[in-house]
Design brief:
- Helix content is 38%, strand content 16%.
- Strands 1, 2, 3, 4, 5, 6, 7 and 8 form an 8-stranded mixed β-sheet that branches.
- α2 runs antiparallel to α7 and α3 crosses α5.
- The structure holds zinc ion (ZN).
- The site of zinc ion has 5 residues, from loops.
- Zinc ion binds next to loops.
Length: 284
């Protein structure tokens, strides 16, 4: 039988774990070859002391070095066969001054990065590719660029893989939102009891709707058997997880909440219909 190969294009170290961690581990367990392309080094992440990139002592190169090690650990946990780092600088969130850094991913001509990605795709010939949608799932420039670069790369290769965008159905997003709001309320109450008054939240994620209409979902993958690996992969990105809601759950809760990953089908060479439960549907 033909070797099955899966490739995901992610923006930063830790995205592979949060949006495709279950899928990676599941596919590795099934003997599928798995490849991860990480576009940036994540210089705009949190420093080890929790410092944000706008802090004076925040050292992007030091952050990237830590995140490179964390990524290696996550790759091991998820059983990823090949990691390719494109090595671009993190562009930061939309509107940050880092967007203008000539070395950042956002500033790289799409065809230049796409040619590099196309070469990897031709080497590996994955049947299935995953990346983000055109709003980069939540509006981050590096995620948007990952979408554009992937689409451009697909025009440079000599075959048509099945492309999926990772997604969270609106109904699930509504449950997550409830959970975040409840956590937020509880934190405010605890703080208020201690006499700490918090300013009103300006949610970074607030303005962009991260959910996808349920009827657009083309693949719904049960990853409940591998949520421990997904949890460990997220935990491997220790420096970035201080505020992460995932790791505030215990493993049982995590399994209940994170036991499924969803995708929207963008190209469909195998002429699939409806929602598949196997990302390689049509290929095996
Ligand atoms: Zn990211």
């Amino acid at each position: 039988m033909e070797q099955l190969t899966f490739l995901a294009v992610h923006a930063h170290p830790d995205d592979e774990a949060s949006s495709t961690g279950g899928l990676y581990r599941l596919l590795a367990n099934e003997g599928v070859r798995t490849v991860l392309v990480t576009c940036t080094n994540g210089e705009c992440g949190d420093a080890l002391d929790g410092a944000k990139p706008n802090a004076d002592h925040h050292d992007g190169d030091a952050v990237a070095a830590i995140r490179a090690k964390e990524l290696e650990r996550a790759v091991e946990v998820l059983g990823i066969d090949r990691l390719v780092r494109l090595g671009y600088r993190d562009s930061g969130m939309m509107g940050w001054p880092q967007n203008d850094d000539v070395e950042c991913f956002w500033q790289v001509p799409i065809e230049v990065a796409a040619a590099r990605l196309a070469q990897i795709i031709e080497e590996e010939r994955p049947q299935v590719i995953v990346t983000y949608n055109e709003i980069g799932f939540y509006g981050h420039p590096d995620h948007i660029q990952a979408n554009r670069v992937t689409l451009a790369a697909l025009t440079m290769i000599d075959y048509e893989p099945t492309l999926y965008y990772n997604a969270i159905p609106n109904t699930v997003m509504a449950r997550f939102r409830e959970r975040w709001e409840q956590e937020d309320r509880e934190r405010r109450e605890t703080n208020a009891a201690k006499g700490i008054v918090e300013p009103e939240e300006s949610s970074e994620q607030g303005e962009i709707d991260m959910g996808t209409p349920d009827e657009l979902i083309g693949a719904s993958i049960d990853v409940s058997d591998v949520t421990d690996a997904k949890y460990d992969a997220l935990a491997a990105h220790h420096s970035q997880m201080a505020d992460a809601f995932w790791l505030k759950m215990d493993r049982e809760q995590f399994k209940a909440v994170m036991g499924r990953e969803w995708f929207v089908r963008i190209t469909n060479p195998m002429k699939l219909d409806g929602v598949v439960e196997d990302i390689f549907a049509g290929y095996r």
